[in-house]
């Protein structure tokens, strides 16, 4: 089982953790139910995919907060 972090806006792959982690160790259990549904996906193989925000998109949002209204910032 691997944990994959990707940007939910530009789809950039940010990191992959190959070790086994629990939801508690990853901090996922601290998220609300809605946030978990929107940000975490577990595949049939047991891989965990976490949608986060990359540094580039974070900086873009800081410079232009109206970008939050757009689903995919970079296509």
Structure description:
- The protein is an alpha+beta fold.
- Helices cover 27% and strands 24% of the residues.
- It is built from three helices and four strands.
- A hairpin with a 5-residue loop joins strand 3 and strand 4.
- It starts with a strand and ends in a 12-residue tail after the last helix.
- One of its GO terms (biological process) is regulation of gene expression.
- InterPro entries: Fin.
- This is DUF2757 family protein.
Strands, helices and their partners?
Blueprint: E1 3-7, E2 13-17, H1 23-26, H2 33-39, E3 40-42, E4 48-52, H3 55-63
Parallel strand pairs: 1-4
Antiparallel strand pairs: 1-2, 3-4
Record keyword descriptors for this entry:
75 residues, 3 helices, 27% helix, DUF2757 family protein
Q: What's the short story on this structure?
A:
This is DUF2757 family protein. By secondary structure, this protein is of the alpha+beta class.
């Amino acid at each position: 089982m691997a944990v994959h972090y990707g940007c939910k806006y530009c789809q950039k792959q940010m990191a992959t953790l190959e070790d086994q982690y629990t939801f508690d160790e990853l901090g996922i259990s601290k998220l609300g139910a809605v946030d978990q549904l929107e940000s975490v996906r577990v595949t049939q193989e047991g891989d965990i995919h976490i949608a986060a925000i990359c540094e580039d998109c974070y900086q873009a949002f800081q410079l232009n907060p109206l970008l939050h209204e757009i689903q995919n910032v970079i296509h």
